[in-house]
Amino acid sequence: MNSVFTETELQQYYDLLDESLTPYDCGKLCSPSNGGEPFCCSVENAVPMLYREEFRYLQRRSDLWARWKPKTARDKKQKKEDESPILIFCECKGVAHCERPNRSVGCRTFPLEPFLDAEGNILGLIFMREFTNKCPLMGRLKDIKQSAIDKQYEFWKLMLAKKSDELDLYISTSKGWRISAAKRGVKLPLLIPTQLKKT
Ligand code: SF4
Ligand code: SF4
Q1: How far apart are CA 185 and CA 103, in angstroms?
Q2: What does the alpha-carbon distance between residue 162 and residue 160 come to, in Å, rounded to a whole number?
Q3: Is 27 in the pocket of ligand 1 (CB under 6 A)?
Q4: Is the separation of the CB atoms in 154 and 18 below 8 Å?
Q5: What is the mean pLDDT of the chain?
């Protein structure tokens, strides 16, 4: 079942996800090769997806966000195929107009997502597969703060308990990671929350 987040829950998520991933501004790593803008803040590279109720919540707070208007046939197809009953594509006014308190869940968790076992238990955090070669943090996993990993873990636990579609999605993407790592004979680049570390 997919429950609708309340405003209180959304604000709780934003509070948990307020901490930057690295002790430095990681945008400085990727901006030089992306026209001076952080790679993940360009809609050409990644179109943000917001929960429908999150979009309504942010619209009440600010005019930072609007529904994404695809221009090309390919983008129109993507919007039609990928938007869902719980998620929609949106676009912010751009990095020059970013409002830190009104960044979306997606802005705050990028480039990480939960890695789950087949039963849906979170085993750690992992890079979004489509961005592993695009975000320079993939080569700097040690720079990602443990406290930020721990807070993202808390967020994902709360969120996945409320959205079964997201739970199913991440069970599936995690399976994909396991298959590709096994094929290549490599270890999964997992970030482990303190709570799950073996003592
Ligand atoms: S998360 Fe990755 S892509 Fe986004 S600003 Fe930081 S280094 Fe760049
Ligand atoms: S709201 Fe801010 S962090 Fe999010 S995509 Fe826009 S510029 Fe980047």
Answers
A1: 37
A2: 5
A3: yes
A4: no
A5: 96
